[in-house]
Amino acid sequence: LETGTVVVYRRGxxxxxxxxDLAGKRIMVIAGSSYEETLQAAQQDVPGIEWEPRSDVGMxxxxxxxxxxxxxxxxxxxxxxxxxxxxxPRVAAGFTIDGTLPHAWAFPPGPDDSLAQKAxxxxxxxxxxxxxxxxxxxxxxxRDRMDRVGMFQFLxxxxxxxxxxxxxxxxxxxxxxxxxxxxxxxxxxxxxxxxDASSYTGVRGIMMLTRRTARQLGVTDRLDPAQSIEGGARYxxxxxxRIPPRIAEPDRTWMALAAYNMGMGHLEDARVLTQRxxxxxxxxxxxxxxxxxxxxxxxxxxxxxxxxxxxxxxQYVKNIRSYYETLVWMDTREHPLLVAAN
Length: 342
Known about the structure:
Elements: E1 2-10, E2 28-30, H1 34-43, E3 52-54, H2 59-68, E4 73-77, H3 78-84, E5 91-102, H4 114-129, H5 131-140, H6 148-160, H7 162-175, H8 180-191, H9 211-217, H10 225-242, H11 251-262, H12 264-276, H13 284-290, H14 297-300, H15 310-332, H16 336-341
Parallel strand pairs: 2-3
Antiparallel strand pairs: 1-4, 1-5
Helix pairs in contact: 7-8, 7-10, 8-15, 10-11, 11-12, 11-15, 12-13
C-alpha cells in the first residue's frame, strides 16, 4: 500500500488542479503535520500559498470546515480520504500532490530483529492467503451505501433535527438495552426524524406506528416523540424476540427490521422460500436474496401469507444499515456534528 497527499475542496467551487491554484486560498491544516511540511516545501515555489495551522482540530473537523465553506482547502492522506469521503458528500479531491510514500512498520533498532521477522512472516502469510486483498477490498472497494444526495440529506438532519431527539433516543435505548444509533437509524428511515410525519396508510410519528400497534403498545399520542420512540423500541424488541433463538447477531437484527417493515408472517414466508431453494433460512444474506420473490405470483401463491412487497423490506433494511453505519462512524470519531448534537 502507498499513500499520497490529496488536496480537498468544496463541491461547487472552482477545482484546484495544481499547487499554483492554492495561492490566495483559505487553507487550514493540522499544525506540525506532514501536511504543513508539504505546504512549507510548496511555498518555496509558490510564495502566494498561505495556511492556518491548527493544533486543536482533527481531520473530521477539517473536512467539515471545507464542507461548510469555512475554509477553501485542506490536505489529507489519500487513504484516510478514501475511507471517509463517503461521509462528506460536499467535498471532493482536487488533485494529489506529487510524491507517494509506502506504508511501513517501524521497529526499535538493535541486534534482536525477531519481532520484525515475525511481522514479515505475518504479512507474507496474509498476502499469500489472499486475506490482505480481502481486507483492502472490505475498506477501500466501492460499497453499497447511500449516494451523495442521500448522505447530504442525512447529515443535514443530523444537524437540524437530531439534537432535539438525541436525548430521547439515548434514554430509550438505555432503558431497553438497545444501541441508540440503531434506534435512531430506524427513526430516520421511518420519518426522517419528523415528529409530525404521516402516511396515506395511516402510520404516524417518528417511528411511524400504526394505530393498532400504538394501541397494543399503550402509545396514546403517536405524534409525541418520546412515546413514539418508546413504542418503536418495544415493537422492534418484540419482533426480535420472536426470531428463532438459534439465529445469531447481526442476522437476528436484520431479520427483525425486515419484519418491522413487512410483518413477521412475510418474513417467515421468505425464510420458507429460502429453505425450499437450498439456502439457509437462518442467514440474512440468503433470506435477503429471496425478498424480491415475495411480489412474484409464481412464488407468493405457494406461501402462507401471500403477496408482499419484499423489495421494499430489502431496501428498508439496507437503508437502516447504512444510516446505522454512519452514526457509528460519527459517534466513534466524535464527529463535530454529533458532538454538537450532544
